[in-house]
Amino acid sequence: MSKITRRKFLAASAAGGTAIMMAPTKKAFAAGSFEGFPDGMGVLVDLTRCVGCRTCEAACNKEQKLPEPALPFDDYSVFDEIHHGNQKRRTTDKAYTIVNRYDLKDSDEPLYRKIQCNHCNEPACLTSCFVNAYTKTPEGAVIYNSHVCVGCRNCMIACPFHIPAYTYHSVLNPVIKKCIFCYDTRLKEGRPPACVESCPQQVMTFGKRKDLMVIAHERIKKNPDKYIDHVYGEKEVGGTGWFYISSAPFEEAGFDVHLPKKPIIDNVKDFLAIVPVVLTVWPALFTGFHLLATKGKSHGHGDDHSHDEQEGH
Amino acid sequence: MVNASKQLITGLGVLLLFSVLSVSCYAMDYPEEVEIDSLANLYEPVIFDHAMHVDATEGCAECHHHTTGTPVLNAYCAKCHTGDVEMDVVACQDCHSADPVSPENLHNPKPGYSYHNDQPNLKAAYHLKCLGCHREVDGPTGCEDCHAKTEAGDKFYHSGEFAPKEDAQHGAEHE
Q1: B31-174 domain in CATH 3.90.1150.10?
Q2: Which of A223, B48, B108, B148 has minimal Cβ neighbours within 10 Å of its Cβ?
């Protein structure tokens, strides 16, 4: 210690600190530009086609071996249900997808909307999960590992679409449940999810996300009077695997139209990038400063206790 | 000799024309009834009253696009398909694949067409066409108005004899 001069120490620590500060910041910017896997699959949802038959709900129930529903899937009284907080139906641990009906301002015909996980390019659930239970697969699905889920419910708060549900009824091992794009049974083999296949109206079109995006814009271009000129999910929260076109303004169909265009993680990415730096460099740096600042100072001033401790070392 | 055979052919042709015209105003043959059964599973096949729909619609092209040789009604399709002749393929399933997104089809897509690249699958072709029109003209729109549910369908939808038991208790309480 005594061989290092004050000048050398300061110069070296300043250079090292700068180098470390620069490196992770660059990395963070690189990660922020992720726009999904190039060959990831997606689903184009055309809300103008949905007639609210609930066949997709039945197909999901069967495919995912979910428990028996409270009401038959051809019972349309569920569209009138209003739940806690004046809300329409939401996805639950027993129903990974549901269809809701929305009354429109300018039309006598209602609009039906299927709700399920949108399989974001950069999922907020994934980034919020501290046990790394979530995975975004190259096929495009956002899946999760129930075995490592500790039931903290961070993902439920993080999800901008309020999709992950919780097995509240389970006393011993409550976990998260949500749509997985039928990854295990279908998507992995290149087949469309059960809901998509079951739909009589082909509300949902399955294919490569980038191909479907072209089709979505073509449909709008060919029928400018029919569609709103917006593909919901193209840019929202960094892009979603499932995206929507509609005849009515999206807010009337219960969509959150105030979501940022950037992934949710971008809100905290810059901050998170400097945390490791602060935790590793700052203690060493400031301990050094402190040691240098107090080096050679005469005894008997300042805090006696700290002084004694220093002596002990 | 040549004249005689020519006359015979003309005579036969006129006869044929009259017989066809007497069946309908369209100069072609069509089935009175079609059983749509290729996808029947959750629902029984549809017994489609083709003759009634021929009378009820403006022209064949309302359902058959450009394949029947009658004038094309859709302005977008008419950009290319004008003055078309009757094609060999007129049934929906001749063009609309039942499974266009099978792994094989997805990995071997047809060469890049600028048109016909957003074709609905067969099930959707039926439903979009039938329901689309029925909703406009106030025709029947309920699932079972056109095809009755099968036992497999009842099981799938958890309805009929497979309805949730809790619901039955609920219903009994209300009654």
Answers
A1: no
A2: B108
CA–centroid distance for A198 within its chain: 27
- Reported CATH class of domain A41-262: alpha beta
Q: In chain B, which among 97-156 make CB contacts under 8 A with chain A?
A: 101-103, 106-107, 117-118, 120-121, 123-124, 126-128, 131, 135, 141, 143, 149, 156
Other CB atoms closer than 10 Å to residue A113's CB: what's the count? 23
CB B154 within 8 A of CB A75: no
Q: Which tens digit of pLDDT belongs to each residue from A74-126?
A: 999 999 999 988 899 999 999 999 999 999 998 889 999 999 999 999 999 99
Cβ distance A74 to B166 less than 8 Å, yes or no, reads: no
Q: How far apart are CA A111 and CA A274, in angstroms?
A: 46
Question: Which is more confident, A244 or A282?
Answer: A244
Interface confidence, given as ipTM, is 0.77
Question: What does the domain layout of chain B look like in residue ranges?
Answer: 1-29, 31-174
Q: Do residue B156 and residue A73 have CB atoms under 8 angstroms apart?
A: yes
Contacts of A73 in chain B (CB under 8 A): 156-159
Q: Tell me how close the Cα of B16 comes to any Cα of chain A, in angstroms.
A: 41
CB A174 within 8 A of CB A151: yes
Instruction: Report the distance separating Cα B138 and Cα B146, nearest Å.
Output: 14
Contact B158 A72 (CB under 8 A): yes
Residues of chain B with pLDDT under 70: 1-28, 104-114, 166-175
